[in-house]
Fold this protein.
Amino acid sequence: VLPEHPGFGDAERPEWLETVLDLAYCHLELLDKLGLERVHVVGESLGGWVAAELAALVPERVRTLTLIAPMGLLVEGLPDVFIMNRNRWREVTRFADPEPEGAAPSIDQLIKESRVQASLARVGWNPYLHDPRLPRWLHRATMPALVLWGKEDRLMPAAAAEQWRGLLANARAQLVGQAGHFPALEQPEGSAGAVLRLMGIA
Amino acid sequence: MEFYCFHLMPWPYLPGDFMEKNPSAWVTYSNKNFDPAKGQVLYNRYLDELEHAEELGFDGICVNEHHQTAYGLMPAPNIIAAMLARRTKHAKICILGNALSLRDHPLRVAEEVAMLDVITGGRVVSGFVRGIGLEYYSFQLDPSRSRDRFVESLDLIIKAWTEPGPFEWHGEQFELRYVNPWPRPLQQPHPPIWLPSTGSQETIELCAERGYPFIRVYERAEIVKQIFDNLRAEGERIGKPVPPENIGWMTPIYVAETDAKAFEEAGDSVLYLFQELSHRPMEMLVPPGYMTARSMGAALERQQRRHTIGKLTAKQLDEQGFCVFGSAETVRQKLAEHQKNMGFGKLVGLMQFGTLPAEHTRKSMDLFGQEVMPKLRSSLPIAMGEAG
C-alpha cells in the first residue's frame, strides 16, 4: 500500500490538517478501513516523521519500522527548505550531480508545487520540521526498527541517525554511502536490501 | 483628490558591493550593519519630514510596518504614529498598516489604535496588512495561516471597537472570554480602515464588499491600472461600485527645478529603492501558503516580469510609471495623466526614498506642496468624473 498524505499530492490540503500527528491518524484510519492489523511501515523524509508518530501512537499495529532520513526531531543549523529554489533543492538533496533542468516550470507546475509546500508549511513551519513532543513518546515504538540515512544528505544531515537510534526502543542505524537525502533513489539496491532484511524477507 | 505623504524610513547606508555579497536586504542581512548613532539622526530627520508634510498641506501622513530589514526602520508603526500624534494638529495619521497576522494579539492593536484616535481627536486612519512574505520567516509564522488570521483579527478588532464589551469571541484563531478593550476609538463607528495590498483577489473582494479604500504600492502603471480595473469590476459585479476615493496609488515622487535635474538628483536614490532595498530571493518573498492558488498565478506572472525591474534606469522606471519624476509642471502633467488612466482618488506620495538626502527631500516636498498639489486639487475633481 502506498498512501498519499492528504494535501501533499494532487488533492487540495484538507481543512483539518494541522500537524504531522493528524497525518498519522489519517493513515491509521486507512489501516482500519483496509482491515490491516499489523504492517511493515516505511517512511522517508516527511513520511519518516509520519511513520514515527504512527509507531509511537499504535506500536501494536507496526510490525517493523523503517525511517529513511526522517524529519521530526530538532536539529539546529538546517538549511531552510522553504527558501529554496528548485536548483538549490536538488543541490542539497542529491549526492550525484542531478541532470540539468529542462524548460522553466510552467505556472501550473509552480502552483502545484507551491500547494505541496504550503501543506508542508502547515505542519512543519513552526516548530521547524520537528515535533518537540516526539522524543517523549518514541520509546513506545518497541518494534524492530531501521534508521537509514544517506551519508551525504545536506538537507537533514546523517548525524541525526544516532539521535533517532537512541530514542527508539529497538533500532539500528545504517548509513548509505554515495547518497543524499533520498538514498532509495540514488542507491536503490543497497537501500532495498537493508529494508527487506529488517522485514525478514531477504 | 486627496494627497498623502508616505515614508518608509529606509536605511540608506548599504555598501556599494551589497548586492554581490548578500542574498537579501531582508531576514538575513545582519543587524550588525545597523549603526544606532546614524539611526538616531535618521529617525529624527524622517520624523521632521513627515511633520513638514502637514505644514505643506498634505491631507495625511503615512507610516508602515516592516521587520528585520534595511528596507524600512519602522517595526512598530504605532510608536511612530504616537510621536506624530502630538507634533501635528490637522493631518490624518495613516498607519499603512498594522501587520495583523504578525501580531500575537489583535486586541493589542485595537487598544493602540483606539488610544491614537482618542489622543489625536479622531485623526487616525487604521490601515491593516498581513505583513509581506519575508516577515513570515522573520517571525517564523506559518504563512498558510496568514489570510485566516488576518480576516479574523480584522473582524475581532472592528467588533471590539463597535460593540459594547465585554463579549465572548470564539473563532478559529482566537478564543477570548472577555473582549472589552479600553479606550474605545473616538471616530464613529470606528477609524477608517484602508487595506494596502499587492492586489490579491481576496483583498480586492474584501475591499469591494466592505467599501474599504484599497491602496496599491508602487508598480508598473499598466499593472496598477489592471488591478484597479479588477477592483472596479468586482464592485460592479456585487452591486457596490467603487468610488475613486476608495482607490489609492502609492508612488515615489521627485520634483526639481527641471526634468533633467530631477533625474540627476534623485535617479540613484530611486534605483537604490528598486535594487538594493528590494534585493531578496523570490522564494523568500512568496513563502508557501502565503497566497491562494488563484492569486498565485497572477502574482507569479508579475514576479517573472519583475525580474527585469532591477535592470531599468530611473528614466525607464519613470516612463513605465514606477515613479514620477520631473519639474513641477512635468510632475503635475504626469500625475494628471496617471490619474485619468487609473482613476484613483488618493495619491500617496513617497516623498523620500532610498538614499535621497534631507535637503533634496525637503526641496522636492516644498515644490510639490507649493506648485503641484494646489493645481491638481483645483483641476482634478473634473477629471475624476471621467475615470474608470
In short: Confidence is low (pLDDT under 50) at residues 382-388 of chain B.
